[in-house]
């Protein structure tokens, strides 16, 4: 290449510079205000190993993403230097290491900012010269170790991308005549490095294996009374203005560090400086090693902690003075926290007196509350042994005049250093002596503008000189207690309001629930009433023609018998009938007719009797005319209900039949509300049939016994068992059980709740068992319980008295609540 590569074509005046840049072996680059390459000479392109098209317009950082690791580190370092120059607007010199096929190559690179008329950086110009042939001196190695130990970044000459920042270590060698210029540059770098060390706030020195000084920074030299840091080289601690004790101690520390190869850190010691000023230092001594790891000396860093030491001494001197203030602050915070965390007034007051007594180291602390006529009572106290208690003590009227109360209301604080020598009334002194009080401190407690009570501290052992801080502490706490008392009162009022609101809400909820229940019950009762009316009307309409048929069947049977006897008589009188009569006898098959007509008449009698029984069952179930207590046969009501449900018990094409077994006991006539009791039987039997149908649908029984006449097979199928009996001669019991799948315990506990049902929507209202429970328990003073477990069937147990205690007094309200 014959020129530098730019984004824009250079003008003619710059051609000579471009030719120089193209011919020189030095690295020359230009960067724009964004840190992107504007121009790069051939030497830089060759060293970076990138094409011109890749460099121009790109920043070193963006290029580092697509190059090998070694080159990436160099480009990232270049980006860092360019950015620093743009930010600081100052000249910067660094040493970069580039990895090449021939090995690592070092370049001393200078970065120069180009400013416009406004002082803004518009370009950065870099010029680099190779310094690979220089070698690092032992001084560089030692100082590199020292700087690393005290936190200064040092270059690793074996690592790519290494930089030696502004003021880098001097690189020395035996210079030839042709390299003196480069040596001068390195010397300037050494001067900059020394400048960095001299500006470090710590004191730095390093020694050889024999504790001979090899160097230091200017701050350490001035402390030792040496003007030039280079003058320390070759000296020992014996040559410096330390005390004999200090010299001995320094040498002992040096020996321990270098022999044990273990650093001594944070050593606090006094230091007599050259100006005879005694200071305090925190010293670190660290071993230095050569390339083989052998200890060749030590590095020392010193930090001046004189101000810190003085502060610690002052803190110790003032500790006693401020301990009491700290305790006061702690007590204030603790009580404030207690007030925030608890709204229980008794707890807050008790905590306050305990903490006050302990903090003030007094014999007794108490809180006194006023009531009417400025009488009062000690609410809480904390008292040390052996002093007596003041709880419940009441101040007499004559010892506490209203004028004194007015002064307390205005915020007066009573400070008695010695009760005996005070100006109190005799009765007051007598009262205080009763409780062994020799010194007294009283602070009023206000809630808003009302004088609520007093916070009192007693000293019983001896008189006491109360301090201003103690008085201020008590006043502060009295104010906090006033806030706490006000909050507790508001909280109590809020609790009372909340409880009242809760009670009203519960009452309203109960009323709403009762209203919903009553409404649903009325709807259900209306349905049952409508059903009863329908059944009664139907029974009445059927009963009339059935009675007509039933009443004439006997006559028809008698007439038919008479006619048949007449025919038989004719056959006896005229054994030889005419041909026409013989033909008619054959046509009507007189012998069969004579035999079958009797069977037909018997079937008519059985059918009409069955119809009459069904009609009677319907009438018994409806009981429209029985809205008061009646004496009835319980079994009759059960059988009537079974007759009505008979169609659900018969087998169908989809399921087997359900057997009903009866184990009736010998029951007397029972006083009850028949229609309501029948409603209970209907609900329980209907639920039993539902449960058995569900079990059949789920395959609980095998179909082998379907329609079987075998009694054992029938028992194994779905069955409802009804048992009745007497209990203690005063109650009747009815048990209705099924052998279905049973009810889980979690559901069994809810079955009597209104609106609770496990049936699908539209198939159950959840009111049947709830109403049944009310009818048995409330209406009949009985019991209705359910016993069940999953897989073991279900049993409902009913108990009602044989005689109802209120059978003669059925109020209109009851009749309205349970309409039939």
TrEMBL record:
<dbReference type="InterPro" id="IPR036097">
    <property type="entry name" value="HisK_dim/P_sf"/>
</dbReference>
<keyword id="KW-0547">Nucleotide-binding</keyword>
<feature type="domain" description="Histidine kinase">
    <location>
        <begin position="537"/>
        <end position="804"/>
    </location>
</feature>
<dbReference type="InterPro" id="IPR003018">
    <property type="entry name" value="GAF"/>
</dbReference>
<keyword id="KW-0597">Phosphoprotein</keyword>
<dbReference type="InterPro" id="IPR035965">
    <property type="entry name" value="PAS-like_dom_sf"/>
</dbReference>
<dbReference type="Pfam" id="PF08448">
    <property type="entry name" value="PAS_4"/>
</dbReference>
<feature type="domain" description="Phytochrome chromophore attachment site">
    <location>
        <begin position="344"/>
        <end position="480"/>
    </location>
</feature>
<dbReference type="InterPro" id="IPR003594">
    <property type="entry name" value="HATPase_dom"/>
</dbReference>
<keyword id="KW-0418">Kinase</keyword>
<protein>
    <recommendedName>
        <fullName>histidine kinase</fullName>
        <ecNumber>2.7.13.3</ecNumber>
    </recommendedName>
</protein>
<comment type="similarity">
    <text>In the N-terminal section; belongs to the phytochrome family.</text>
</comment>
<dbReference type="InterPro" id="IPR000014">
    <property type="entry name" value="PAS"/>
</dbReference>
<dbReference type="Pfam" id="PF01590">
    <property type="entry name" value="GAF"/>
</dbReference>
<dbReference type="InterPro" id="IPR016132">
    <property type="entry name" value="Phyto_chromo_attachment"/>
</dbReference>
<feature type="domain" description="PAC">
    <location>
        <begin position="258"/>
        <end position="317"/>
    </location>
</feature>
<dbReference type="InterPro" id="IPR000700">
    <property type="entry name" value="PAS-assoc_C"/>
</dbReference>
<dbReference type="InterPro" id="IPR029016">
    <property type="entry name" value="GAF-like_dom_sf"/>
</dbReference>
<keyword id="KW-0808">Transferase</keyword>
<keyword id="KW-0067">ATP-binding</keyword>
<dbReference type="InterPro" id="IPR003661">
    <property type="entry name" value="HisK_dim/P_dom"/>
</dbReference>
<dbReference type="InterPro" id="IPR004358">
    <property type="entry name" value="Sig_transdc_His_kin-like_C"/>
</dbReference>
<dbReference type="InterPro" id="IPR036890">
    <property type="entry name" value="HATPase_C_sf"/>
</dbReference>
<dbReference type="InterPro" id="IPR005467">
    <property type="entry name" value="His_kinase_dom"/>
</dbReference>
<keyword id="KW-0902">Two-component regulatory system</keyword>
<dbReference type="Pfam" id="PF02518">
    <property type="entry name" value="HATPase_c"/>
</dbReference>
<dbReference type="InterPro" id="IPR013656">
    <property type="entry name" value="PAS_4"/>
</dbReference>
């Amino acid at each position: 290449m014959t020129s530098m590569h730019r984004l824009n074509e250079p003008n003619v005046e710059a051609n000579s510079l471009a030719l120089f840049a193209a011919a020189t072996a030095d690295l020359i680059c230009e960067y724009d205000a964004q840190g992107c390459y504007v121009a790069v000479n051939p030497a830089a392109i060759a060293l970076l190993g990138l094409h011109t098209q890749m460099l121009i317009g790109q920043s070193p950082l963006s290029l580092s993403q697509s190059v090998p690791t070694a080159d990436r580190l160099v480009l990232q370092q270049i980006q860092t230097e360019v950015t620093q120059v743009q930010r600081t607007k100052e000249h910067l010199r660094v040493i970069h290491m580039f990895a090449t096929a021939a090995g690592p190559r070092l370049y001393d690179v200078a970065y120069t900012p180009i400013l416009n008329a406004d002082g803004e950086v518009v370009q950065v110009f870099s010029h680099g010269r190779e310094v690979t042939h220089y070698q690092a001196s032992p001084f560089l190695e030692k100082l590199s170790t020292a700087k690393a130990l005290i936190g200064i970044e040092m270059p690793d000459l074996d690592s790519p991308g290494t930089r030696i920042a502004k003021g880098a270590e001097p690189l020395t060698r035996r210079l030839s005549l042709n390299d003196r210029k480069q040596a001068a540059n390195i010397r300037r770098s050494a001067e900059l490095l020394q400048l960095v060390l001299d500006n470090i706030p710590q004191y730095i020195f390093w020694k050889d294996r024999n504790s001979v000084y090899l160097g230091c920074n200017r701050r350490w030299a001035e402390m030792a009374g040496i003007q030039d840091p280079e003058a320390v080289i070759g000296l020992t601690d014996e040559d410096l203005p330390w005390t004999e004790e200090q010299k001995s101690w320094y040498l002992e520390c040096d020996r321990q560090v270098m022999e044990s190869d273990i650093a001594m850190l944070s050593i606090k010691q006094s230091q007599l400086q050259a100006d005879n000023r005694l200071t305090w230092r925190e010293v670190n001594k660290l071993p230095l090693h050569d390339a083989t790891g052998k200890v060749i000396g030590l590095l020392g860093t010193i930090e001046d902690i004189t101000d810190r030491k003085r502060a610690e001494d002052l803190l110790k001197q003032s500790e006693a003075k401020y301990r009491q203030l700290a305790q006061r602050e702690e007590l204030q915070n603790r009580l404030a926290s207690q007030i925030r965390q608890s709204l229980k007034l008794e707890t807050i007051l008790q905590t306050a007196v305990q903490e006050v007594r302990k903090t003030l180291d007094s014999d007794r602390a108490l809180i006194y509350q006023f009531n009417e006529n400025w009488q009062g009572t000690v609410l809480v106290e904390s008292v040390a042994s052996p002093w007596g208690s003041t709880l419940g003590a009441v101040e007499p009227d004559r010892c506490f005049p209203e004028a004194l109360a007015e002064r307390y209301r205005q915020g007066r604080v009573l400070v008695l250093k010695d009760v005996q020598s005070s100006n109190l009334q005799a009765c007051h002194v007598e009262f205080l002596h009763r409780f062994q009080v020799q010194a007294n401190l009283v602070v009023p407690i206000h809630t808003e503008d009302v004088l609520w009570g007093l916070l009192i501290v007693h000293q019983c052992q001896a008189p006491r000189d109360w301090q201003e801080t103690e008085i201020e502490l008590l006043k502060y706490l009295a104010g906090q207690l006033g806030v706490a008392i006000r909050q507790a009162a508001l909280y109590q009022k809020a609790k009372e309001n909340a409880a009242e609101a809760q009670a009203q809400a519960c009452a309203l909820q109960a009323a709403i629930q009762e209203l919903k229940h009553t409404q649903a019950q009325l709807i259900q009762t209306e349905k049952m009433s409508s059903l009863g009316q329908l059944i009664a009307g139907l029974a009445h309409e059927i009963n009339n023609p059935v009675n007509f048929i039933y009443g004439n069947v006997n006559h028809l049977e008698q007439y038919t018998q008479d006619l048949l006897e007449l025919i038989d008589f004719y056959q006896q009188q005229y054994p030889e009938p005419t041909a026409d009569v013989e033909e008619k006898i054959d046509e009507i098959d007189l012998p069969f007719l004579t035999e079958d007509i009797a069977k037909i008449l018997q079937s008519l009698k059985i059918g009409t009797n069955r119809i009459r029984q069904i009609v009677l069952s319907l009438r018994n179930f409806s009981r429209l005319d029985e809205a008061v207590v009646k004496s009835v046969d319980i079994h009759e009501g059960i059988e009537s209900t079974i007759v009505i449900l008979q169609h659900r018990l018969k087998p169908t094409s989809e399921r087997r039949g359900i057997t009903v077994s009866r184990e009736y006991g010998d029951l007397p006539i029972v006083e009850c509300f028949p229609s309501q009791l029948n409603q209970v039987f209907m609900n329980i039997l209907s639920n039993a049939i539902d449960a058995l149908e569900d079990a059949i649908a789920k395959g609980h029984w095998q179909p082998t016994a379907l329609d079987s006449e075998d009694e054992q097979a029938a028992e194994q199928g779905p069955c409802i068992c009804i048992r009745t009996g007497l209990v203690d001669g005063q109650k009747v019991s009815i048990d209705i059980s099924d052998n279905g799948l049973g009810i889980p315990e979690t559901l069994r506990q809810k079955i009597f709740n209104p609106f609770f049902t496990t049936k699908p929507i539209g198939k159950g209202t959840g009111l049947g068992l709830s109403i049944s429970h009310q009818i048995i328990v409330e209406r009949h003073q009985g019991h209705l319980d359910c016993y069940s477990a999953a897989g073991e069937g279900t049993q409902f147990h009913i108990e009602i008295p044989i005689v109802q205690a209120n059978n003669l007094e059925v109020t209109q309200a009851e009749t309205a609540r349970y309409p039939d």
